[in-house]
Design goal:
The protein has one domain: Rossmann fold (3-Layer(aba) Sandwich). It has six helices and nine strands, in the order H-E-E-H-H-E-H-E-E-E-E-H-E-H-E. The strands form two sheets. It has a seven-stranded mixed sheet with strand order 5-6-4-3-7-8-9, sandwiched between helices. Strands 1-2 form a two-stranded antiparallel ribbon. Catalyzes a salvage reaction resulting in the formation of AMP, that is energically less costly than de novo synthesis.
């Protein structure tokens, strides 16, 4: 399956969640068994090896992280929005384009020194991904790399991660976003 075919499985929804935004809906790729399998296999193949945990960012990132983790024989770590995890948590506040947000992981789920692969469906400006990396490092882990299904390169997020020294890859790019 070509990259262009994978790209064609992703639906674009104009003016969602607000006017001027072109939402890249990966659900149409995910319901295609061959497309989803191919995407996961490719994501795993470009990931750094010797990974202990694959950290998926809420919510679509959980689905890709779980599937990639099975290919890498690694555990799965959920990086959740603030207030959604029980018990003690490590948290990181970060700025968004229109406000602030928080990411959290449960204390004890990130072993000190663990090699972590960050996975999400899409990288745009990179704010959430950078906050997730900082959260992993705060918890004592090493972020070995990041893999995304989609990159919106005009928004600069993947480049921000690379500039911070993180090995970063995406399967598909949508230019002009």
């Amino acid at each position: 399956m070509t990259t262009e075919h994978l790209k064609s499985l992703i639906r674009t929804i104009p003016d969602f969640p607000r006017e001027g935004i072109r939402f890249r809906d990966v659900s149409t790729l995910m319901v295609d068994p061959d497309g989803f399998t191919e995407a996961v296999e490719r994501m795993a193949s470009i990931a750094p090896q010797d990974i202990d945990l694959v950290a998926g960012i809420e919510a679509r990132g959980f689905l890709f992280a779980g599937a990639v983790a099975t290919k890498l024989s690694a555990g799965v770590l959920m990086v959740r929005k603030g207030g959604k995890l029980p018990g003690d948590v490590h948290g990181r506040d970060y700025a968004l384009e229109y406000g602030d947000d928080r990411l959290e992981v449960q204390v004890g789920n990130v072993p000190r020194g663990a090699r972590i692969l960050l996975v999400d469906d899409l990288i745009a400006t990179g704010g959430t991904a950078l906050a997730a990396c900082e959260l992993m490092e705060d918890a004592g882990a090493e972020v070995a790399g990041a893999v995304f299904l989609i990159d919106l390169p005009d928004l600069g997020g993947a480049q921000r991660l690379r500039d911070s020294g993180l090995d970063t890859h995406a399967l598909i790019s949508f230019e002009g976003e």
